[in-house]
């Protein structure tokens, strides 16, 4: 009995290691998950990019800005001359917050009056916004205490200080649904479309029916288009379904153009469909296609900003996120739905999606055509 059992175990090991792609996935997946969950799965925000509108331009206002900079939470990324410039930087995602120091700030402190400071926060990501909200108030209170400590010999009720008034834009209640539901739309377009496309084409090859199609007058391009079109319609239906439920049931506001959202979704489908075709050209079985899809797509969930804020990741991992197509689509979806922005703000993301889409689709189509031939 033991010899028979040993022979079966040996046979199974040989079967596993004869398929190098499956073996690589089995051993690489735990390492990838360890790295991603160890570094990306964090909400500890540091070096949040902040734009400063200093209307006072005094030593006291510069001291306040420096207090925010040395706190470790904020990184002064830009100085602006108007609230319109600050709004553009926040809309585009270049900064997460804006510090507004009004004219007369130093005069209020010198006269023993309470100085008012505004702190504008991008609330589209509630996890980041809540951290920034607390840190902004904490730094303001610390700076206020420093000012009070310098004022000796006056009545306690006349002691000056700073009142920081945080204002959360786009998602004032910092509701998680407003952040997650647009992200789910991006995941539907990316994950399900790629996976189902790869599985559908591999299933034809596994069943032997794709060879029957090849010997017919149908051209390879027509085979690909015929396989993809149904999934394009299903993807758009799912996106509209999620959007409708989000608006009706979860009260997610749609501040931008739905037509623009659908148009850019169609552009993004070039990438997701291209990935599906590429996987189908590599995999021989449906099981292998599923494993490869998870290997390629699973990191996008962590690195694309779906669950965890990119700002909380280490610098080297943030640089890696620029290679994740989902990152750009999530910025587009959340920008249109929550911020109401258009192409003027999103053109960097749109350009990146176009480059990814064309490159991946050309690579996948070329490899798939050779596979058919």
Provide the descriptors you would attach to this structure in a database record:
alpha/beta; 67% helix
Quick overview:
The protein has 373 residues and is of the alpha/beta class. It folds into two domains: 48-169, abc type-2 transporter like fold; 175-372, no CATH class.
Overview of this structure, please?
With 373 residues, the chain is an alpha/beta fold. The protein folds into 2 domains: 48-169, abc type-2 transporter like domain (abc type-2 transporter like fold, 3-Layer(aba) Sandwich); 175-372, no CATH class. It is built from 14 helices and 5 strands. The protein has helices at residues 2-17, 20-40, 59-69, 83-92, 105-110, 126-150, 176-207, 209-214, 220-248, 258-282, 286-303, 315-320, 325-339, 343-372; strands at residues 48-54, 74-79, 97-101, 115-122, 162-169. The chain has a 5-stranded mixed β-sheet, with helices on both faces. Strand 1, helix 3 (59-69) and strand 2 (74-79) form a beta-alpha-beta unit. Helix 7 (176-207) runs antiparallel to helix 9, helix 9 (220-248) crosses helix 10 (258-282) and helix 10 packs antiparallel against helix 13 (325-339). The longest helix has 32 residues, at 176-207. The chain is elongated. It starts with a helix and ends with a helix. Mean pLDDT is 82; it is low at 153-157.
């Amino acid at each position: 009995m033991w010899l028979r059992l040993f022979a079966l175990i040996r046979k199974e090991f040989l079967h596993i290691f004869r398929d190098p792609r499956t073996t690589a996935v089995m051993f690489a997946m735990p390492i990838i998950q360890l790295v991603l969950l160890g570094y990306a799965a964090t909400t500890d925000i540091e070096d949040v990019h902040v734009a400063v509108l200093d209307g006072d331009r005094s030593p006291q206002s510069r001291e306040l800005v420096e207090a925010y900079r040395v706190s470790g939470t904020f990184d002064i990324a830009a100085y602006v001359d108007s609230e319109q410039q600050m709004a553009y930087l926040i809309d585009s995602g270049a900064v997460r917050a804006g510090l507004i120091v009004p004219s007369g700030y130093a005069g209020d402190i010198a006269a023993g009056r309470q100085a008012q400071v505004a702190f504008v926060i991008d609330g589209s990501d509630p996890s980041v916004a809540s951290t920034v909200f607390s840190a902004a108030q904490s730094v303001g209170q610390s700076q206020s205490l420093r000012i009070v400590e310098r004022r000796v010999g006056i009545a306690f009720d006349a002691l000056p200080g700073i009142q920081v008034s945080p204002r959360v834009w786009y998602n004032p209640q910092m509701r998680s649904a407003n952040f997650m539901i647009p992200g789910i739309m991006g995941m539907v377009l990316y994950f399900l479309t790629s996976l189902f496309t790869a599985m559908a084409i591999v299933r034809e090859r596994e069943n032997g029916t794709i060879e029957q199609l090849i010997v017919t007058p149908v051209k390879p391009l027509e085979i690909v288009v015929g396989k993809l079109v149904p999934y394009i319609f299903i993807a758009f239906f799912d996106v509209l379904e999620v959007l409708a439920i989000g608006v009706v049931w979860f009260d997610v506001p749609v501040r931008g153009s739905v037509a623009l959202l659908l148009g850019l979704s169609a552009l993004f489908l070039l990438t997701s469909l291209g990935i599906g075709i590429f996987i189908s050209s590599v995999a021989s079985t449906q099981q292998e296609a599923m494993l490869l899809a998870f290997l390629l797509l699973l990191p996008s969930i962590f690195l694309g900003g779906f669950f965890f804020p990119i700002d909380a990741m280490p610098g080297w991992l943030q640089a890696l996120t620029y290679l994740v197509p989902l990152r750009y689509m999530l910025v587009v979806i959340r920008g249109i739905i929550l911020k109401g922005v258009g192409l003027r703000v999103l053109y960097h993301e749109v350009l990146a999606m176009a480059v990814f889409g064309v490159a991946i689709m050309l690579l996948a189509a070329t490899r798939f055509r050779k596979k058919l031939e």
